[in-house]
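Subject line: Sequence and fold of a protein, written as structure tokens
Enclosed: The protein record, placed directly beneath this head.
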Amino acid sequence: MLVGLDLGRRRAASPAIAQARDAAAAARITTSHRLDFSPEESMAELRELATSAGAQILTEIIQMKERPDPATLIGKGKLEEIHGMVASASADLVLFDHELTPSQQRNIEKVVDARVIDRTQLILDIFARHARTREGQLQVELAQLEYLLPRLTGRGVQMSQIAGTSAGARGPIGTRGPGETQLETDRRKIYRRIRHIKEEVEKVRRVRAQQRLRRESVPVPTVALVGYTNAGKSTLFNQLTRSGVLASSKMFATLDPTIRAVTLPSRRKALFSDTVGFLRNLPHTLVSAFRATLEEVQRASLILHVSDVTSPIRHEQDVQVEKVLGELEALNKPRLRVMNKIDLLPAAERDALEDDAHTVHLSAVTGAGISTLLDRVDALLQDDPLRRVKLAIPQREGKALAMLEGKARVYAREYQDGVVHLEAEAPESLLRKLQAFVVVR
């Protein structure tokens, strides 16, 4: 059973008051600039999250309340109603679209007579299901432990019985993980495990830093794909890199980072990085735990912000992406907006779309607009800038000619007295190697 919460509204109001409230809301919020999700949109996202976790949704309800109840979030009367709905639908799990305090969670479970988890625990569960690498599993376990630690009070026995399965193992929602160690009532053991995981994650960060230093010793820029979950980042990544990263309509299908090299139209190389999808109110423990992974975003030369052009809540989703980028201190990075899934738009609407200096429209599925995107990325990357020059290379200098053909864009070529005269656009790093052949004008 899904339970949503619509805060700031009373259940009933006079028509005049309701009309005034709606008019004030309309004045504050426009369709294109809303900063938050409506209760219905939020519930739709919870529904998608629950389905991604393998839940079968039997029933759902949204409680309208002026302010959250400190003891039960939604009030004792509504809890009794939910208890009846849970019993009639034979539901064994109640998912709240709101973060619950430990005491609220215990109080609700006593009344509804079913397991209760909140949105944060559901997201952690999905991450645990999709973590494949040792790095990803460590980061998920760290986030789970930090979330569950304050919830041990009064629930020690129950917590200690949670299966200590591996992160990807099957099991009831909310009980996967947090790894190979069972949660125990002894907080010292929990803290010890957290310290150990943080040490392991720090090792991962050091290895990534070493790899990054090796990459940065050669002028190959990194382009990071970011966006709201299910915006089509992995499909776009596969289209750009011709790789086989899992692309799924389920939320958070991509969790572990992937980096692949791409040859740009100028013949320069760039590394493209696929990242975990962002989400509204992404648990802070996850952002912190996955900082080692998300450092690729912090160090990227260019960020591609991928949006689902067909989503009715695209603008709200974009605001959430901006928030996470702010947490990562990456708002000052050069960015290019990528409006994906144009193949799902009506033909007339698709034909009316226009790219601009900051936006590219494309379909990662059909490949429409991919060449425009690569051209734009090529122009925006300044790590190894391009320069158009004229060169005179003797034909016997086969190595230099091959280097130019393989790593530059040649516009004109003329043979004269054993010398090849060329006009080309090449990166500075290549021109430094060919400096002896550059024609000084």
